[in-house]
Amino acid sequence: MKVSIRKITDRTKEQVVIECVHITPEIEDIKAYASLKGTELSGITQEQLMIRFRLEDVYYFEALDEKVFAYTKEQVCQVKMRLYEVEESYKMYHFVRCSKSVVLNLMLLESISPALNGRFFAHMKNGERLMISRAYASELKRIVMGGKKDES
Amino acid sequence: MNHKSIFIDMMMAFFICTACITILEGVLGMIFFPQVIFGYEAFFSPPLFGIFSVLFSIVNYSRKELSVRQVLFRRFLHLLMIEALVLGLNYKAGGFTDFNFFYVLAFSVAVVFILVYVVMWMGERYSAMRFNEQLKVYQSRQN
Q1: In a domain, A94, yes or no
Q2: Domains in chain A: how many in total?
Q3: What pTM was computed for the model?
Q4: A119: which of A79, A115, B75, B97 fits an S-S bond (Cβ 3.0–4.6 Å)?
């Protein structure tokens, strides 16, 4: 595929234009990747400061007491979204529900390991361990393993 | 958790259980009752115990996500139910002429119970390993 870069001066006008004959899964991947790189979120830190951070830096979102928090490597920020909105909006950016209260970033998932009662632990790249419920484990496997069969 | 995965889990537990019970019956029979000879109906005993053991596993299922303590308590309850069934049936059949047999049987049932969960856990571990391999592929494809 031919790739060209045109330099501009206005940062607000930065964009990626994809020219293609058909929208293939590869094109969708490129679109998702490009969109993710530009996506920024704003949130309130524990010190009540409003900050902006990149979506790709978020390890996971967690719902606690009607509030949703985004966990990056350095900080925890409260975001003004419901967890189902996070799940729906950022599905294409590899964010997947892994339990009733957590949506994790598949790109920052290191590995999984079995826990008790058919559940799994998700080991994130920052060393944190999250629980993957049975109810969401199969969907997670379907996304990562594609069409490959895995009955467990 | 859908019905399909519950069914698959139950079937796996049944086959592992039946295999372990068959070995257990063979070993205990050779030690405690070497003179006893059974007919073909004896072949139905391991799968029957297997079915009941799996049916009792219903105590492990819950719509809610259970804590580790709750899971362990339910597993213990499951074991107690199986022990009651096996020891009860043996008592009815007059198998407890030797007290050592009672203790050995109770202990063996617990070993089989743990073994079934260990084998199932190993299956999940294998599944996790496959997932981890695919996860690396998935992540490199997206980067």
Answers
A1: yes
A2: 1
A3: 0.72
A4: A115
Q: What's residue B1's pLDDT? A: 56
Q: Test B139 with A150 for CB contact under 8 angstroms.
A: no
Identity of residue B128: A
- Shortest Cα distance from A49 to chain B (angstroms)? 32
pLDDT for B60: 85
- Out of B71, B131, B142, whose CB is closest to A33? B142
**What counts of helices (H) and strands (E) characterise chain A?**
3, 10
All residues at 6 or more sequence positions from B129 whose CB lies less than 8 Å from its CB, including other chains: none
In this complex, is the C-beta atom of A151 within 8 Å of any C-beta atom belonging to chain B? yes
Residues of B in contact with A131 (CB under 8 A): 65
- A116:B72 CB<8 A: yes
Query: Count of CB contacts below 8 A, A vs B?
Result: 73
Cβ-count burial of A9 within 10 angstroms (0-12 exposed, 13-18 middle, 19+ buried)? exposed
With bands split at pLDDT 50, 70 and 90, how would you rate the model's confidence at A36?
Answer: low
Q: Taking CB atoms and an 8 Å limit, are B131 and A151 in contact across chains? A: no
Question: Is A124 inside a domain boundary?
Answer: yes
Domain that holds residue A28: 18-145
CB < 8 Å to B125, chain A: 113-114
Q: Which string of DSSP letters, residue by residue, matches A10-44?
A: -GGG-------SS--HHHHHHHHHHHHHH-EEEEE
> Quick one: pLDDT at residue A152?
44
Q: Is residue A88 part of a domain?
A: yes
Distance, in Å, from the CA atom of B41 to the CA atom of A42, rounded to the nearest integer, reads 71
CATH number, domain at A87? 2.40.50.1020
Q: Looking at the domain assignment, is residue A9 inside a domain?
A: no
Listed by number, the residues of chain A in 116-145 with a beta carbon closer than 8 Å to a beta carbon of chain B are 116-120, 131, 133-135, 138, 141, 143-145
pLDDT of residue A115: 87
- What average pLDDT does range A117-135 have in this prediction? 89
